[in-house]
Each structure stands twice: as structure tokens, then as C-alpha cells.
Amino acid sequence: MNSSQINLDTISAISTPPGSGAIAIVRISGPEAFTIAEKIFSSSQDALLPVNLKGNSHKAMHGFILQPRTQICVDDVVLIPYREPASYTGENLVEINCHGSPVIAREILELILSLGARLARPGEFTQRAYLSGKMDLTQAEAVMDLIQAKTKSQSRQAQAALSGQIGSKISGVRSELVELLTRITAGIDFPEEVGEVPLDDLERIVVDSKARLTSLAQTMRAGRFLREGLRVSIVGQPNVGKSSLLNQFLKFERAIVTEIPGTTRDSIEELVELAGIPVLLVDTAGIRNTEDRVEQIGIDRTVTAIEQADLVLFMIDGSKELDQTDRKIEQMICEHAQKPFIMVKNKIDLGEFKNEKPEDAMDQIAISAKSGQGMDALGDCLSRFVFSGSKDKGASVNERQGELCLKAMQSLELLERAVSDDLPQDCLATDLKEAIISLSQACGTEVSEEVITQVFARFCIGK
Ligand SMILES: Nc1nc2c(ncn2[C@@H]2O[C@H](COP(=O)(O)OP(=O)(O)O)[C@@H](O)[C@H]2O)c(=O)[nH]1
Ligand SMILES: [Mg+2]
Fold first, then answer.
1. Which of 67, 77, 202, 447 maximizes the CB count within 10 A of its CB?
2. Spatial distance between the Cα atoms of 85 and 91, rounded to a whole number of angstroms
3. Of 244, 315, 352, best ligand 1 pocket probe by most atoms within 8 Å of the beta carbon
4. 173 with 69, same domain?
5. Are residues 203 and 250 in the same domain?
6. For ligand 1, which residues put their CB under 6 angstroms from it?
């Protein structure tokens, strides 16, 4: 716990989303949380006695919120006090469950603010949990990922990080490096008593730490796609079955499918979940030479869809041999836009033309967008793309944590070079310290105010 960062003021906010619902929750946290709540809450059991929240920690109490001056009843509520440190924020915390009308929740909040609390900033409850040592920074970031998760796998990932998986992996490496640094420093300060750290010991720890950081950093790519979604554009000549594939993924007729080439004139975007990955599928207008102005605009948008994609599904009529136009499209995807692509051979229910996988294609999958044949293989292929390089399907580091792991690895590489250059051990200590600082920043044991503010500003109010 960093006592200089402890907030002495009391904060409050409505923690449920705006709008009407069955209940709304107003939260108060800080040193005055109980005193303020006691001024406005009257228990239905002992209406005449003043409530004692401190002595009723973690107990749900039914009662009324009364305006202190007029004693007008604002709402009947269930109030739960959490005495510090056993609360979400680590401070005294009160949750008031009122009827889910935005007017009532707001009136209760205003009462609380008039009694000396201040409106919480976005993420400030979680920020306090972090500042009071309830969680590390990777867990606090996971709270936000969990709130914002749109698919099951996103929420599983966030849960894993929230349980401390990432934080403990990073701090595991960090403590080994700290232990090494302590020994090196002791060797420098007391050469007679302690002696230098044997180099093979040092090298073993550095190699092992680098391997652990590499596998953590490799989860960054999968984490980004799981958090932000994978943008996949379906591209190919008119009539190869691009819109049929979109519909097959969506399991309903989203895009118009006809045998008339040029039916899809604009890009259509749909979010689907494939193999647990949120995928933004973009169905595009087919690419061909045309005089039609509307169709040409559609083709220009296809080019944009290729440029914006993380991955392109390049579709051909798999019952036929690749033609000139197919080759041109392939060039456009891999040479011009330099995008990874999967060759999707469609319409194999009509027979498959056997060809070698194009050299630049990540993979080649034969499907029928009509019958659904081959769809599982295509899903597996997308999953391989997302998790490539990463064996770990558990929690993944976010960009901030991943960059810091990479930075720590760079310091360790400098350290290895210093060892092979026979530099004295105090030079090694400098690189080691740098690596430790990066890892401390990653899990938040040593971060600047600025970083903390940036992390929590992305939260919503009331969390
Ligand atoms: N036999 C067969 N026909 C297909 C298949 N996929 C699409 N089609 C047909 O091909 C035509 C063009 O399909 P569409 O999805 O509109 O192609 P797009 O222009 O690439 O979007 C339609 O008549 C579809 O019914 C398939 O896997 N097998
Ligand atoms: Mg189409």
C-alpha cells in the first residue's frame, strides 16, 4: 500500500447503467461513507434507533432513505455496509439498492453529495481498490475488460486476468530478478564476505526469465484480437459466394444472395463469435472491371476493406481453376496491401478443382457456403491465426503490459551482452534494475500517477 496515495475524501456514484430497471445501486466509499449513510438511512427494524453501520458489516438491511431535514421518504431500499478493509475499495463502502428509477437514484446521490461526498471519477472505486492494495494493476485492468466483454471468451480471459494470473506471472519473474540483483549488489558491496554471483547461475536465470516473458508477450496478439475483435474481410470475384458465406456464419439471411453478379454493392459488416473470438466480418462487393459507377464505388470500398482487415478471406469458385481476375485480386491482397489471407475455395458441392495452396496464403480451406461443409475447418483456421505463436490460451497481457514485458526482455538482452563482454558486475546490475523497473510498471508496483490516471480514465463512472 502506498500511503501517500490514499484519498481522504469520500466518493459516491450511481453504479448501475442509466435508464430504468428493477434496481439501481448507489455506492459511497471513503472515511465518511458510514457517517453519511447513517444520516439518511432509517432501518425498518429499529426506526427509532440510530443505525450503526460499523457493527452490521456485510449485512443487508431494509429501510428508508429520508431527507435529513424534512424526513420526507425518498425510497425504500436495501443497504449493505462493508467495513474496511473487507470491501471492494478497501475503505468503508456502502451500497444502496434502490428502485431502478433514474430519478430516485439521482435524488439519493444528490443527498449524499450534499452531505460532503464528491462525485466519483470514472473507475475511481477500482482505482481505490488498487491503491489500497486490494488488487494489482493487471487485475484492475481486467475489471474493465470484464465489464466491456462482448463474448464469452472475452469474459473468460478477463476473469483469468482478474484472478491474478497475469500479475502473478509477471511478479514471479520480477521476484527472481530482484533476488538476483540483491545477490549481485551484496557481492559488489561486500566482496570478501559474499563474493560474486557465479555467471552460469546468472545466465540460467536470465535465459529462464526471457523464456517466461516471451510466452507472456506472445499472448498480447491473441489478447488484442479477443479484446478488440478480429476484422475479417471476405473478398473475391462477383458470384463466388461471399454473401452466402457471411449468411452461413450468421446463420441467417443477412446479405442478399442472387445468381446475378454484382448484387452486393456496398460493404456489409456483422459481428459474430467464431471459436470464441469476436469477429467483425465484412462482406464486400465483388471485384471485376465495370463501367457501372455504383458498382465501382463498391469496389473502391472493397479495397478499403482489404486495407482495414486483420485477415482476408480470399474466396474463389473452388469448382474451377483460378483465372486472371483471381490472380489480380490475390496480388492486391498480398502484394499491394500485404495482408495475411486464407484461400477459401467455395462451391465444392459442385466438385473441387484440385490445386496447390498458393504460396502466400496462410492456408487453403475448401467449403460449401450453401451446405455449410468445411465451416468448422474455416473456424479452426481463424483460431490458429489468432493464437499463432501463443501456446497459452489462458489470460493474455494487454498492450501496455506486453510492451513492458518486451522492454524488460530488451534489458535482459543487454545484460547477456554485458556478460559476454566480460563487463564488471555493477554494469550487469544496471541492466537488471531496468528490467525490474519495467516489470514493476507492468503489475503496478511502481507506476507514475499519469499511467494510473490513464488506466482508470477508460472506466465507466461507478466502477
Ligand atoms: N452450389 C453452390 N452455390 C453457391 C454456393 N455459395 C453460393 N452459391 C450460389 O452462388 C450465387 C452467388 O452467391 P453470392 O453469395 O451472392 O455471391 P457473392 O456475389 O460473392 O456475394 C448464388 O446463386 C448462391 O446461391 C455453394 O457453396 N455452392
Ligand atoms: Mg455478395
1. 77
2. 6
3. 244
4. no
5. no
6. 238-244, 257-259, 263-264, 286, 346-347, 349-350, 368-370
